[in-house]
Specification:
By secondary structure, this protein is an all-alpha fold. Helix 10 crosses helix 12. The chain starts with a helix and ends in a 24-residue tail after the last helix.
């Protein structure tokens, strides 16, 4: 007969592990002998070795009992089922690792590759990093709220970035965004934005956008809060009859043929 220490040594486990197996019912706990010690026989050694082998192979302890008590056919089926679950868990963990690797890259968090590429194009134009962060946050909102639209929306943005007026607009964002409301650049930007709006109207690119009103309000408020100059910019556009930033809500017909300062 063996003591608990000897039993553990035979099976290659710790005494603590043996006691844990007692607690969860995997290994029957023998009665104490006359000296007050628990002693174990060969059957306990064999069972403990089988428990350790299954656990060491990756079988969850909650499933060990059913395999210990199973016949050959049931044992094989049980092992296959556990293997299937482990393979699914491996795929899940691999996916988690990929997401963590993308998280380390910054913009990849919650953003598709097309948006990351767009933000990199803005960096290539020298756009202030604070503005890029603002755009990134806006794209995160869009990707979360309308994931089915994000690919089409960002593809259109990539096309628009080939427009000289839009490139010039971004050129104003190469420095700090702390413009005051009376900064003369605000009017220049308003002229550029209006030209882009007119072009969008003429191309039939305004109207239903798939965004709900709350999302539009969130995106607009982010833009307005970026600087005093941004609030003044929207005020100038509204004076000219335009309303909205993310979504053009009012199209002033009398402005469509207006001669604006050339780019």
């Amino acid at each position: 007969m063996l003591t608990i220490s000897q039993l553990a040594a035979y099976a290659g486990v710790t005494v603590r592990a043996v006691r844990h197996y007692h607690q969860i019912g995997l290994l029957p706990e023998p009665e104490r002998d006359r000296s007050g010690y628990r002693t174990y026989d060969a059957a306990a050694v064999v069972r403990l070795i089988r428990i350790h082998a299954l656990a060491d192979a990756g079988v969850p302890l909650a499933r060990v009992q059913e395999l210990l008590d199973a016949g050959p056919g049931e044992f094989a089926d049980g092992v296959q089922e556990i293997d299937k679950e482990l393979r699914a868990e491996i795929r899940r963990l691999q996916g988690t690792r990929k997401r963590l690797a993308r998280l380390a890259a910054g913009e990849h968090l919650a953003l598709p590759q097309g948006v990351v590429d767009y933000l990199d194009r803005l960096r290539g134009l020298g756009v202030e990093e604070r503005y890029i962060e603002m755009e990134r946050d806006a794209w995160i909102l869009i990707a979360a709220q309308v994931p089915h639209l994000i690919d089409d929306v960002i593809a259109k943005k990539h096309e628009q970035l080939d427009d000289p007026d839009l490139v010039k607009l971004y050129s104003f964002l190469r420095g700090p965004l702390d413009w005051s409301a009376d900064d003369p650049r605000v009017v220049e930007v308003a002229d550029l934005v209006e030209r882009l709006m007119i072009r969008a109207v003429e191309a039939g690119e305004v109207g239903a956008d798939g965004f709900d009103d709350q999302l539009v309000d969130l995106l607009d408020s982010t833009m307005v809060q970026s600087s005093p100059g941004a609030e003044r910019l929207l005020a100038i556009l509204e004076e000219r009859g335009w309303r909205g930033w993310t979504r053009i809500e009012r199209v002033p017909a009398d402005r469509l043929n207006t001669e604006l300062p050339p780019s």
